[in-house]
Specification:
Blueprint: E1 4-9, H1 16-29, E2 34-36, E3 40-41, E4 56-57, H2 61-71, E5 74-77, E6 94-97, H3 99-108, E7 111-115, H4 121-130, E8 135-141, H5 145-150, H6 156-174, H7 179-187, H8 189-198, E9 202-205, H9 213-224, H10 232-248
Parallel strand pairs: 1-7, 1-8, 2-7, 3-4, 8-9
Antiparallel strand pairs: 3-6, 5-6
Helix pairs in contact: 1-9, 6-7, 9-10
C-alpha cells in the first residue's frame, strides 16, 4: 500500500521544522513509518543543518541545474510568482525534487513529508494524480483568516503588514540570515499565504513559529516515552500538534 504524501508549505521561520520533527517522533511511537523527502538546494548550509538530512546541498545553482537535467529531477528557482528568472544571479536559491526517489519513499512509508515552495505545488499535484497518490496540503501560518479581523486588519495592505511584522520577529529571533535576506523572506510571506488559499491548502495556525524550540524537544521526548505533557506550555503545544495530526488523518485525495 502506498503511503500518504503531506505537502507542507509556509513562510520561512513559521515553525515547519519543529512541528514535523515532533510528528516524526509521534508516528514512530505509534508504530507508523514517516519519512521526510530531502530536497536538493543550491543555498549554503546553516548552523545545525546536516547534508542529506536537512537538504542535499549542492555548491552552485549551475551545478544543481546541470545534475537535475541529467537525472530527471524537477528543478526550480525559489522566487516570487511572476519574477523573471536570472540564470546569472547567484543569490537566487534553486531547489530540486527527485520524483523517482519520492515514489519509492511512498511505497516504504505510511507518511512522506514534502516541504516545498508554494509555486511548485501544481507540479507535485500532477505527479500525485498521475500515480494515484493520496495527498494532503497544509500551509503553516501565524494567522488564520479570522485572526486578521480580530487584530484590526480591515484591508489587504494591513494584513500584509501584520504578516510581515510577525515573520520579521520570528526570523530575527532565528538568527540564521542577514537582515537583507530576512526582509526579503518576511516580505513574501503574505503572498505565499494568498497563494496557499487560492490553491485550496488547509491553513494551519502555529503562532509560535520556531520559538519555544526547547519545549518542542521536550514534547518529542514525552511522545517517545509515551508520557503526557505536564506544563502549561507543553499542553498548549500538544493541543496545536494534535490539531495538526487530526487534519492529516482526514481523507483528502486527488
Amino acid at each position: 500500500m502506498v503511503g500518504k504524501l503531506i505537502i507542507l508549505s509556509g513562510p520561512s521561520g513559521v515553525g515547519k521544522g519543529p512541528l514535523t520533527d515532533t510528528f516524526a517522533v509521534y508516528q514512530k511511537s505509534n508504530n507508523r513509518t514517516f519519512k521526510k523527502h530531502v530536497l536538493y538546494t543550491s543555498r549554503g548550509e546553516r548552523v545545525g543543518e546536516k547534508n542529506g538530512v536537512t537538504y542535499h546541498f549542492i555548491k552552485t545553482s549551475a551545478e544543481l541545474r546541470k545534475r537535475g537535467t541529467e537525472k530527471g529531477w524537477h528543478v526550480y528557482p525559489v522566487i516570487k510568482k511572476g519574477q523573471a528568472i536570472d540564470f546569472e544571479d547567484n543569490s537566487i536559491q534553486w531547489q530540486a525534487i527527485d520524483f523517482q526517489a519520492l515514489q519509492l519513499e511512498l511505497i516504504d512509508n505510511d507518511y512522506v513529508l514534502l516541504e516545498i515552495y508554494i509555486n511548485e505545488v501544481p507540479e507535485v499535484e500532477k505527479f500525485c494524480k498521475n500515480n494515484g497518490i493520496t495527498v494532503k496540503k497544509i500551509f503553516i501560518s501565524p494567522f488564520l483568516p479570522e485572526d486578521f479581523e480580530s487584530i484590526g486588519c480591515t484591508n489587504e495592505k494591513e494584513r500584509e503588514i501584520a504578516m510581515q511584522a510577525a515573520m520579521l520577529t520570528k526570523l530575527i529571533n532565528r538568527c540564521t540570515e542577514d537582515i537583507s535576506e530576512i526582509k526579503k523572506r518576511a516580505g513574501r510571506a503574505y503572498q505565499e499565504y494568498l497563494d496557499a488559499m487560492n490553491a485550496e491548502f488547509k491553513i494551519f495556525k502555529n503562532p509560535y513559529g520556531e520559538d519555544n524550540a526547547e519545549t518542542w524537544r521536550k514534547l518529542q521526548i514525552i511522545y517517545a516515552e509515551n508520557k503526557k505533557p505536564e506544563t502549561k506550555k507543553e499542553k498548549h503545544l500538544h493541543d496545536i500538534f494534535m490539531n495538526f495530526g487530526d487534519e492529516l488523518n482526514k481523507n483528502n485525495s486527488l
